[in-house]
């Protein structure tokens, strides 16, 4: 324990320093050490102030999430923080890096707070389905305006040191970078000024007027979309405004324990660790990635321009090629517009934008300009002939060791790699639209792809702040393969009697950001249409094939971009409107196929949707396209709008029970044996009474 927490004296300043890499989580051992050192510090007569600080890249990044779900061990964090707050000498929290959750709550227990530049301070517990359970919901609104406190706690987003200073959350942003030294200097100042301890708990709580509170509650409820933690967070803040401090702490604790016991918190903690596990691949362990600083992009359409911007915002040098000057200028314009909006959203400073456009970005019509590129990615039209032309030319001009990447969403990467003399350098990097916003990146590994090319794909993803998932080669890789399967189940439900609008309503009620028909309209119905046409030759003739979407496309109704798809999109009409003509087209197809529509309940819509998703996902894992079920969860959470508080389809299936999902599939199989073939992996796990989670380790 000595090495995790140590106490030194600097004159009359006691320095309690924690060293628990990688993020100084407040584990049991750290809490024991902290309590011991703190008490030792206070027991010294010469102690006039105590500084709490951490080594490494960050002050405490919160409670140790790995301890959740295990029997809690004393000293408990809330009690430790109360002990810190009760100290009879000033306690200073000297912070750097990410000060999060229980870490910020510990700092709120201190009497004074100083942070070095670049420090980020936040209470992200809500993103784990929890709330700040160590006094944060009671102390924060006593230090900063109630509206800011409510926003920080219900939203979970960290604030910068400067913003924290202007809110009154911290007392000083230090000029130096050494938090320990800055803390000691600040402590000396406080001692010299005769400053007293200043327990936040004894301060009056800032309040929101009832109307304001009501407004905040409505906004939080709307954004929650079924998540329970944000509401509980606001209940705790409201308790701070209406109850004495001690009673507020009790209320906070009760709400915290309720959330900790909830399925939602289990699901969100699963998502947290899954996103960190997904990049751990045996095949790239100890493999050094190739250096990637200069990137080439072929194709300046929506995806190409978005990929270029994602790279530029991450400090890479980008050359974008288009077939002619006009197209190249158009691509440069859209890159410029995306950078402009990043400036407007405060993600980029205007001078940085100017520097990027002046030095790091250029367009060309000559492939020869890729000669020095470390990686070139193509985002051109999805046809094998076009890919052949691009990769043949890249193979001729790119330097040895350059990585040749494809942004294809469906096509066979092994066939693309075989078009070059260097298949070991070919990899799939499947971005999601908009590429500079969506976090998911499927790293598609071909049969000849070299391990260091795979490692480079994952290293690039980390640099672009993407969540990368390894995918094997098949039609649609992980996400789109599963999407096209549950898409068939959704279309099948409509043919059987459900309205597309009822399906969207049921699934947004289930927690999806948008229903499948609204998503189709957003992405463009022509994309799905082109895909169905591409696969028509291979389609099983016995497969039920709903045609209503093809009818819409034949009418030129591709969705938002044409003002009409499944919904009607009219300026100023207050959002998309159901289209009665769509219902007519569907009814006509039912009549033509002799289908008598039947009522399909919301529960049935959800169980069919999830059964189709989980069944195909089990096949994707069974076929080795996804390494583990958690890879599927991370893919659907970060690329397909699956509700995070359900943890992903595989985690959800485990919560429901695989035997129940299998029962549903077997029932649906009776009416359509082609679509509803139970996946062997699902059958095996259900028979063995095992979960998908058991395959994640
Ligand atoms: N507990 C345990 N492990 C943690 C951890 C934590 N709080 N935070 C990070 N790790 C591990 C992580 O799994 C990974 O492990 C390694 O550290 C590096 O993390 C009472 C209840 C701090 C911004 O929610 O947001 O306090 O994979 O890859 O990208 O009210 O980690 O290497 O084995 O993410 O630089 C609140 C969670 C807890 C913060 C750093 N705190 N962490 O990001 O590295 S709840 C949080 C993060 C709480 C109290 C409540 C990020 C980070 P491995 P990383 P990074």
Structure notes:
- It is a single chain.
- This protein is α/β, with parallel strands linked by helices.
- It has 28 helices and 19 strands.
- Strands 12-11-10-13-14-15-16-17 form an 8-stranded mixed beta sheet. A 6-stranded mixed beta sheet has the order 1-2-3-4-6-9, sandwiched between helices.
- The model has no long low-confidence stretch (mean pLDDT 97).
Tags for this model:
8-stranded mixed sheet; 6-stranded mixed sheet; 19 strands
Terminal CA distance reads 29 Å
- The chain-level structural class is alpha/beta
Proportion of strand residues:
5-15%
Q: Which molecules are bound besides the chains?
A: (2S,3S)-3-hydroxy-2-methylbutanoyl-COA
Helix content bin: 40-55%
Tell me the strand order in the biggest sheet: 12-11-10-13-14-15-16-17
Largest sheet: 8 strands, mixed
The number of strands is 19
Q: What general outline do the C-alpha atoms trace?
A: globular
Radius of gyration from the alpha-carbon trace, in angstroms: 28 Å
Average of the residue pLDDT scores: 97
* Quaternary structure: single chain
Low-confidence stretches: none
Q: How many helical elements? A: 28
Structure, briefly:
The chain has 28 helices and 19 strands. An 8-stranded mixed beta sheet has the order 12-11-10-13-14-15-16-17. A 6-stranded mixed beta sheet has the order 1-2-3-4-6-9, with helices on both faces.
